[in-house]
C-alpha cells in the first residue's frame, strides 16, 4: 500500500513543540536535531497558517512568528498574540538587552546571570526617587515576573535572587524594536512639553490629539486586543 | 618586563600568585586547592561540593589549631578566594546548571607548583635536561634548513651514527643506562608530564584572554568589517590561527593518534617496571598521565570550539552592526528615560509578539463532572446471618469532648493553672490514645492553654486487649 502523505510524519513532534513555545537545543537535543532535519517541511507547513519558522542554529533556539505579508497579499488574522508592555517593563527589557550586548562584547560566558539587586541598581536611576527601598524592590520584582512570563528571563533554581537572561531576548529585542521604543518616548516627551507650554496639568486626558496619537499607535495592530484577551 | 624593584612591587600588589603566597592563610588555601583541583586533575567543582570539602578541612584544622584558627565559614572563604581582588578561583555557571561552579585560575596553579617544587626534589637531573636542549636545537636547525644538500648531509650523519651503534650491538656491546641516568630521565618525565597538565589551565586562560581582546577590538572598531578582518588573521578562525591555537592543535593531533596512545601506554608500563624507577616509589598516577592529558586537553578543546563559535557569530555581519546600533539606541533611550523619571508614561507603551501561537486546548482542561454519591447495596452480615448492630461502630472510639472540657474547668475552679498530667492523675485515661489526643486538641484550640516543649509528661493506660500502653507528650498547661 502506498499512501502518499503530503508531509513527512517526522515533522509532527517539532511542530507540536513549536506550537506550544520556543524550542531550545539545550533542553532537548534530540528534538532539536529532528527540527533541524525537517526544517524545510516545517517551514512549508506553518506557512499555510501565516507563520514563519525562525530558527537560529548558532544560538540554538527556534520559534514561530507571524509571517510578513508579501506584496499585494492581504495580511491574515494573527495566530501569534501580542503582549502590551508598560513603560517600566519595556525599559527593563531594553536595559537587559544592553547588558547582554555588553557581555557579548566582553567575551565572557554566554550565560548572563544577574542578581535582582544588580538589576535594581541598574534601573534605579530611571525611576522616581523613592525613600522606600523595599517597595522599589517589590515593584521591580513584579516587573521581572512579567518579563519572565514573556520567556526572556528565568529565576535560578535554589537561588531565587539570581536571574538568568535567556539569550532569545536578542531575537525579540532587536535594533528595530528599540528604536520604536525610542520613538514612542520621543513622542511622549514632545507631547509633555506641548502640554506644559499650554499650561495643562493632566496631559494625557486634556490633550485629545496627543492622546489619540499614542493610543492609535498602540491599537493600530489589528490584534492588539486579541493578545490581551 | 624587567625584574626590577618597581615591577616586582607592582606584581606583589596585583599578581594573584604572589598574593596567594603572602596571604594570611596561604598554607590553608594552597593545601586545599592542591587537594581539590590539582591532585585529582579536577576542572570544575560545584559550590556545594567545594564548600563541604573545605568545611571538612577546616573542621580537622580547628581540632589541632584551636577553635578560633579559621573563624569564617567555608562559603565565606570561597567567596573571598573567587573575589576580584584575589582571583584564585574562577566562578562560573556551566551550561545546564543553576549552581555556581569553580575552577582554579592559572595564576593560583603557578603558586601551587612553585610551592610543590620547594618540597619534593630527590635530586635534580641535569643530564636529561641538557639532552633535551640538544634535541630541541637540532630539531630547529634541521627543521628550518631549506637547502636540500645540507639536509641530506645531516641525515647521512645520523644514519652513520645509527649504523655505528648497530654494529656495536651486533658485536654484543650494548650500552645500558645506569640507574642514575634512568632516575634522572624519569624525574624529568614526571615533572614535565605534571607541568603539561598544569599548562592546560593557562592555555585555556590564554584562549579566553584572546577572545576578550578580539571582542574588545571589534567593539571599538570604527572602520568596515572587511578591514577589521584584514587587520586580524584574515577570514580564518582567529582563535585557532593564533600561536596558542596552532600549538595546541598540533599537540592534540599528536596525542589523539591511536598509535601514539598505544606507544605511550606501552612505554610507561615498561618504565614503571624498571628497578631504578621502582626505587623512586613514583606516583602511580603518572602511569596513566596520558589519560589525564586527554581529559584536560578535551576540556581545552571544547573551550576553544565554544569560543571560536561564539566569536564567529559575534563577527557575523548582522550581529556586528546590530550590536553597535543597539548600544546607540539604548543610550538615547537612557537619556530620555532619565528626563522622564518623574513623569513616567502610564499604561502600555510597547508591544511584543509572543513566542508561540495562541493555542488553547479546551480538552486538556478538566470538564465539570457530576459528583458521584456511592450507593452501597451490598449487605454485610455477621457469621450467624444476623445484622451488624450499628452500636459497634460507635463503640470503637468515642470520646466525649464535653466531659473532658468539664474536667478541665472543674480543675481550674480551685487553682489558676493545672497541667494535663494532673488532670490525668485525677481522671486516668479510659479511652486510651483517642482520649489523650482529644485533650491535646482541646489544648490547641484553647487560647488560655499552652504547650511547654521543654517538659515532657507520660500517660499510662490499659487498652481493651489488657495490654499496658504509654505515651509521652509535651507538657500542657491549662490556665483560667
From TrEMBL, chain A:
> Where does this protein have compositionally biased stretches of type Polar residues?
197-209
InterPro entries under this entry? JetB
Q: What is this protein called?
A: DUF4194 domain-containing protein
Q: Which Pfam families match?
A: DUF4194 (PF13835)
Segments of this protein annotated with the region Disordered: 192-229
UniProtKB/TrEMBL annotation, chain B:
Q: Which Pfam families match?
A: DUF3375
Point out the coiled-coil segments of this chain. 145-172
Q: Which InterPro entries match?
A: DUF3375
The answer on whether this UniProt entry bears the keyword Coiled coil reads yes
Q: Coiled coil: present as a keyword of the record?
A: yes
Listed A to Z, the keywords are: Coiled coil
Q: What is this protein called?
A: DUF3375 domain-containing protein
Origin species, per record, is Desulfotignum phosphitoxidans DSM 13687
